[in-house]
Design a protein that fits this description.
79% helix, 147 residues
Length: 147
């Protein structure tokens, strides 16, 4: 877009990157709304564990932040691209760093569940508890894990 604004014809690579970025962003937005719908129709089971209510609250806030920021990023990208409102572009640029930190924190939290708490949270995220134990190299049999 900077080249277009400077009256320079963008090359093919610029066009493909911009188009790909836009299509991926719109796809992520649609998938996020689908994920939110699935989350409401199939809520996660309550975990009956000994962790503090503060950690549970932090996890809920973190997930709301992830969901909200993904929707915000798609929205600010669309507004920036199609209306050329500079503030939306700056917020989109800032949002990528915040989203990156939230994603890194989410990955680390999953690893903490897997390696330290040794619970089934990461396995549930992967869809199959058995897959995560194979990756981790667990010496437990799948029958023992399911108990």
């Amino acid at each position: 877009m900077q080249r277009v604004d400077a009256a320079v014809t963008p090359d093919l690579v610029d066009f493909l990157i911009t188009t790909g970025h836009s299509l991926i962003g719109m796809t992520v937005l649609v998938l996020m709304f689908w994920r939110i719908r699935l989350r409401f129709s199939n809520p996660t089971p309550d975990v009956n564990d000994q962790r503090s209510k503060a950690l549970t609250a932090l996890a809920r806030v973190w997930h709301l932040g992830l969901y909200g920021l993904v929707v915000f990023m798609a929205g600010s990208g669309v507004v920036s691209y199609y209306t050329e409102i500079e503030a939306a572009g700056r917020l989109h640029e800032l949002g990528k760093w915040v989203l990156g930190m939230l994603v890194i924190g989410h990955i680390l939290a999953g690893l903490v569940h897997w390696l330290i708490f040794k619970d089934q949270v990461l396995q549930g995220m992967l869809g199959k508890r058995r897959d995560a134990d194979i990756i981790r190299g667990s010496d437990q049999s799948p029958d023992e894990i399911d108990r």
